[in-house]
Design a protein that fits this description.
This protein is mainly α and about 120 residues long. The chain has 5 helices and no strands. The chain has helices at about 1-10, 20-45, 50-75, 80, 85-110. The two termini are about 30 Å apart.
Length: about 120
């Protein structure tokens, strides 16, 4: 994910052919992130199958709501009307900030081995 955002930050119209391998990187990063999230939720649920569907449903709902809110904020921002590079930097910064927050949470989270 970090590599693809760096590429997107410095992409110019003359380098448009680079978008194809970058799209593959973005797709692979999204698939890996989704798989990791579902695995973490499965670890939290454990063997409690009755509540598992509810937890996965809440996860899916919150994912769609948060994505919709971020897209709404980006598309309705006044900056998008005044700056041509706003969308580029939104595409670069939103995943990068999310990646940094996830990395910090992983570093400070306690595991079962720590207890």
């Amino acid at each position: 994910m970090a590599i693809s955002t760096v590429i997107l930050a410095f992409l110019t119209p003359s380098m448009s052919i680079v978008i194809y391998p970058t799209a593959i990187l973005i797709g692979a990063a999204q698939a890996l992130t989704l798989n990791t999230g579902i695995t973490l939720i499965s670890d939290v649920i454990g063997l409690r199958g009755a509540s598992g569907a509810f937890v996965f449903g809440c996860y899916s709902f919150l994912d769609k709501i948060s994505t919709g809110v971020v897209l709404f904020i980006i598309t309705n921002s006044d900056l998008i009307k005044h700056s041509k590079s706003f969308v580029r930097w939104a595409i670069v910064l939103v995943p990068s900030i999310s990646l940094a927050c996830a990395w910090i949470l992983i570093l400070i989270a306690k595991t079962n081995e720590d207890k």
